[in-house]
Amino acid sequence: MPDLMSKLKHAGRVIVGGTWGVVAWGLSGAGAVAVVIWGIKAVAIPLLMLKTASWGIWGLGVLREAKTRPPLPPPSDPS
After folding, report:
1. Are the beta carbons of 20 and 57 closer than 8 angstroms?
2. pLDDT greater than 70 at residue 72
3. What would you measure as the largest C-alpha separation in the chain, in angstroms?
4. What is the pLDDT of residues 17-45, one digit of tens each?
5. Nearest residue to 48 (alpha-carbon basis) of 35, 37, 59, 60
6. pLDDT-derived band at 3, boundaries 50, 70, 90
7. Dist. CA 57–CA 28, nearest whole Å
8. What is the rounded CA–CA span in Å between residue 43 and residue 18?
9. Residue 39: helix, strand or coil by DSSP?
């Protein structure tokens, strides 16, 4: 069962994008807050640039995390 849990944890990190994904999600949240505060007409172009950057950062994080291998479980004692 620990093998399944480590695979699920690794899959979760890949979906989120690791550390870079967290940064991208934060930028996306900042864009949503800006829309609430200033309205969509005032922040349309900067929001488009911010969303493009956050998707790119998230994509890089996903690719980076997908290349990493989950840690192997310790070898069992054959006794």
Report:
1. yes
2. no
3. 70
4. 888 989 999 999 999 999 999 998 888 99
5. 35
6. confident
7. 11
8. 28
9. coil
The whole-angstrom separation of Cα 42 and Cα 58 is 25
**Percent of the chain having pLDDT more than 90?**
32
User: What is the rounded distance in angstroms from the CA atom of residue 72 to the CA atom of residue 13?
Assistant: 16
Whether the Cβ atoms of residue 15 and residue 58 lie closer than 8 Å to each other: no
Q: What angle do CA 68, 22, 67 make, to 5 degrees?
A: 15
φ and ψ at 69, to 5 degrees?
A: -100, 145
What lies within 8 Å, CB to CB, of 19 at 6+ separation is 61
**pTM of the prediction?**
0.72
Residue 58 near residue 20, CB atoms below 8 Å: yes
Tokens of 69: 């291998």
pLDDT at position 33, please?
A: 92
